[in-house]
TrEMBL record:
This is Response regulatory domain-containing protein. The keyword DNA damage does not apply. Pfam families: Response_reg. Keywords: Phosphoprotein. Residues 132-155 are annotated as: Disordered. SUPFAM superfamilies: CheY-like. SMART domains: REC (SM00448). Residues 5-116 form the Response regulatory domain. It comes from the Bacteria. The modification 4-aspartylphosphate is found at D55.
Length: 155
């Protein structure tokens, strides 16, 4: 998987720095780290990343609303990294994935890769990581979930 540009929104600095190390070591570029929802929105507007990694509890601000805005305004696919929401809530918001905290490097990277594969090619390599949200999660009887399509934007 070719590296992508992303932002990290996480109010716990050590967790944010850990995520930054993991994704940069995997070949991705971190455009910035936000400690709250407003900073996340500013980073997305300035950098137009390929992917946004968002915590839900951002120092009291609403990460779910920030995720909705990021996807609606800039069409940037968003992956939640949190211990505070269920898969159903994440699916309702429209994000491409959910990584539960505490996470491992493997879980974070495999979920990012699965989300990017699906957004770019419409397929996911097996086995599907547990945090990937897509048609396989919705189930064959309710296969209606569609994420915001991945679009590389030039800044």
């Amino acid at each position: 998987m070719t590296g992508v540009r992303l932002i990290i929104a996480e109010d716990q600095l050590l967790v944010a720095l850990d995520m930054e190390t993991i994704v940069t070591n995997a070949g991705h570029e971190v455009c910035g780290i936000a400690a709250n929802a407003d900073e996340a929105l500013t980073l997305v507007a300035e950098h137009r990343p390929d992917l946004a990694l968002l915590d839900v509890e951002l120092g009291g601000t609403d990460g779910l609303e920030a995720a909705r805005l990021i996807m609606d305004r800039w069409q940037v696919p968003t992956l939640l990294v949190t211990g505070h929401v269920t898969m159903e809530i994440a699916r309702d918001v429209g994000v491409v994935g959910l990584v539960r905290k505490p996470f491992t490097e493997r879980t974070l990277l495999s979920t990012i890769d699965a989300c990017l594969d699906w957004l770019n090619h419409g397929v996911v390599q097996q086995p599907v990581p547990p945090g990937f949200i897509g048609p396989d999660i919705a189930g064959p009887e309710n296969d209606t979930y569609q994420p915001t399509p991945f679009r590389r934007t030039e800044s």
